[in-house]
Amino acid sequence: MNWRKSTLLLASVGLLTAIVAAVFVFQDNIARFRANPRTPFQIAPPPPPPAYGARGAWVLWPDKEVGTGQADVFYVHSTTYYSGKSWNAPIGDAASDLVLKQTAAPNQAGPFLGIGPIFGPRYRQATLYAFFTNKFDGEAARRFAYDDVRAAFKAFLATTDGKRPLILAGYGQGGLHVQGLLQEFFQKDEALRNRLAVAYIINQATPLGLFKSTLAKTPPCSSPDDVRCVISYIDLEPKFDGEMKRVRLRSMSWSGSGGLAPTAGEPLLCVNPLTWTITEEYAGPEDHIGAASATGIRFGGTPPAVTHAVGAKCVGGILVVDRPSQDFLRRRALFGAKWRAQNYNLFYFDLAEDARRRAGNVAQRIEDEYMNLDPIEETIDLGDSPINKVPD
What we know:
Layout (H helix, E strand, L loop, with lengths): L1 H24 L1 H9 L22 E3 L11 E5 L17 H15 L9 E4 L14 H24 L6 E6 L1 H14 L3 H6 E7 L26 E5 L1 E2 L4 H10 L1 E3 L5 E3 L49 E4 L2 E4 L26 H24 L21
Helix pairs in contact: 4-5
């Protein structure tokens, strides 16, 4: 009997071990399955639209007087809606709003606090699963979300004075929507384009081919002093090689006609935030100004800097970063956590300094261009003009 009990116990332990191992092997598949909305996009009732004239439609709205600081900042947050209940999040969804206020906004928008007023809209964001399918539902959810961001951007422009420098910053899904704004608003509007200090598209694939077509008027930033340009990078530690492959092959970007096109292995823009150059040379920790974790800190407070924490190198369009020695600066991995808003920003203080520099540079550029308008090349002589008396 004891032999039988021992055999049964060993078999049970072996089965449990096999189940646990299978769960870990297929953890990403499990996370995606749980996040997959069961109702097709076409028949799912859309959440009510936000009203951007109301304060509640904005997660960030400047307390300081508009017009102060170096530039006006338009920030579009990453995906914080992980539910399978809907393809697009309702405005004010409790779970996603909590992640947005405690994690995403402090770490993503925090670097721009010293630049000027920050405007960050809530929007009916596409759910996380939308970015794992290139079929109709996923594309439609992303287009639906972009329509909200477009409306928020128009409201933002109406608030600014039409002359001040602008900074656009988008992370993840927000980066995709910033890409759309650049295509729709900045390519044909020279006055608006001249105000652009820089656009940050972070953790969203930006094909280099776009800069020869739909983003031709807003080139990549290739040096620390460039303005009216685009910075894009996707930072991952070496262990996330599978995620790097997925990003290169399965990401989508705006095609310029209102649709989305897969990157399918196209070369991606990677600007190294340690040097602010487009190069595949390794930049060491000595170039790193500082990472930070602003999670849980009251928005407006400055988190402590972790200096010289990582080196980084662009490899095949991905910014491959050293594994930080600090555990709280490492990307979480289990059960889809790597796709969610992270509790830190590896380049928090690097972004802060870069944004200040470029905002100052474009302000100087705008002033110089105004003071040095092209002279009138020729004069026109006007002859005598007859005076016609008004009849009584």
